[in-house]
Design brief:
Elements (H helix, E strand, L loop, with lengths): L5 E10 L3 H12 L2 E7 L6 E2 H8 L6 E9 L5 E7 L14 E9 L2 H10 L3 E2 L4 E2 L10 E6 L5 E6 L26
Parallel strand pairs: 1-5, 6-10
Antiparallel strand pairs: 1-6, 2-4, 3-4, 4-5, 7-9, 8-9, 9-10
Length: 181
Amino acid sequence: MTQSSIRGIEHIGLTVPNHEEAIRFFKAAFEAEVLYSLTDKDHDPITHEDVGSKNGLRKGTRMVAVSMLRLQNGANLEVFEIDRPGGETGRSISDYGISHFSVTVDDIDAATRAFAAAGGKLLEGPYDLSDQEEGPGNRGQFGLTPWGLLIEFEQLPAPMSYDGHPSRPRWIPAPASNKAS
């Protein structure tokens, strides 16, 4: 048996009814810090045509606000507001609540092969990450567990860029070889 390339949960995605209210809540309740926003209500939304084949955003819906928050020394939170969210039992990034969690991997090809072999269904990818996550070797892919939970895989060897000057960078699980340090 080969050693897993899974490093740990890097972020949890939450779809909320009001992005600004959720950000205020996470700042007040958990001292969360906004690292960056992929879009907000002052900019163009991210559409199904842009990302639907990659993350399952339903046709006819748009991401109107998306921000990454640092939560102390643990998993980050990615907060989404979708213009027409659903509440169906088949979870997707368009539904209220926790839409997915992301695992950081050293080898996205090996990790997604193992996921598929275990019965998971992979969406489009792996693809090169963009915007603040762009960098040499930074790649991602989503998949669905057999019961429909959306999971994101991210391979992040290159550093990311940030909006403003956060006091700490986005938390990334350490490679397996660094677990003892």
